[in-house]
Design a protein that fits this description.
CATH class of the largest domain: Alpha Beta
Order of helices and strands: HEHHEHEEEEH
Structural class: alpha+beta
Radius of gyration: 24 Å
Low-confidence stretches: 1-14, 36-47
Shape: elongated
Distance between the termini: 68 Å
Oligomer: single chain
Mean pLDDT: 77
Number of strands: 6
Strand content: 15-25%
Largest sheet: 6 strands, antiparallel
Length: 255
């Protein structure tokens, strides 16, 4: 192998490794989506317990936060979609150059390097295409006005539930464990529940706090709020926190 060919191979491998790192980092949201699907499964461990959610109130976000989320989501969607176009163009161009007459190399190292480079192109395409889909979905769900996103983006949830207090407290704790929470504090006498939530490599994580207040023998209120571990105060932390709290509400409804 000529020195120039060896240097070219080294350059190709370094580029491939850099692309592989990017692809692996981007694969995280895909696995996170699989984890979400698991969290959506209904809970059936406790049966024959009476529970009825009478009312659900979500504390809305203000208009400025909603607008910032909408603009940020659109910006990153455009960036990811541009990456998709660049990856497609680069892959087609590289394939045409490699397989054009007189350019194709039969050297095993070049063939292996070309294969891995193509594989990494495909991985990056999958990652950025999936991210584009997620961001576009998030953008459309924000709606045209902030009121359109009230069930999707909020700061906390307060529910009025018809159930015996002790039963409700037990169910809340069970639901926390079902959605991936590790209960750190609980006190039935004060109605306090605190749990750590970590969903796939802590990409979606935080401390979920639940407060139960007994109204009478058959009714109680449940307040649910999540404080994210990372990116506090950002629009993405708000979106992920809202999603986790919604999972709790849905699982409780399945009771």
């Amino acid at each position: 192998m000529q020195t120039s060919d060896f240097l070219s191979l080294i350059s190709t491998v370094m580029t491939a490794v850099a692309g592989l790192i990017t692809a692996i980092a981007g694969i995280v949201p895909i696995f996170n989506s699989l984890q979400r699907n698991r969290a959506n499964q209904p809970v059936t461990a406790v049966k024959d317990l009476l529970l009825k959610i009478v009312k659900v109130n979500r504390e809305p976000i203000d208009g400025k936060v909603w607008q910032r989320l909408r603009n940020t989501t659109l910006f990153f969607f455009v960036i990811c979609f541009l990456f998709v176009i660049v990856i497609i163009g680069a892959t087609v161009s590289a394939a045409l150059i490699f397989f054009s007459a007189g350019n194709a190399s039969i050297d095993i190292l070049h063939v292996v390097a070309a294969f891995f480079a193509f594989l990494i192109f495909v991985m990056n395409f999958v990652v950025y295409f999936y991210l584009s889909y997620l961001l576009f979905s998030l953008y459309t769900r924000t709606g045209k006005v902030s009121a359109d996103a009230e069930a999707f983006l909020f700061r906390s949830v307060t529910m009025l539930v018809d159930a015996e207090y002790e039963t409700l407290f037990f169910l809340c704790r069970e639901v926390l464990e079902t959605i991936g929470g590790e209960v750190a504090e609980y006190d039935a006498s004060t109605g306090k529940l605190v749990a750590n939530i970590n969903i796939f490599l802590k990409m979606y994580s935080g401390i979920i706090k639940i407060k139960l207040e007994k109204i009478d023998e058959k009714s109680s209120t449940v307040m649910v709020k999540l404080d994210p571990h990372f990116f506090q105060g950002t629009v993405f932390a708000l979106a992920s926190s809202s999603w986790i709290v919604n999972q709790f509400v849905r699982q409780l409804e399945n009771k």
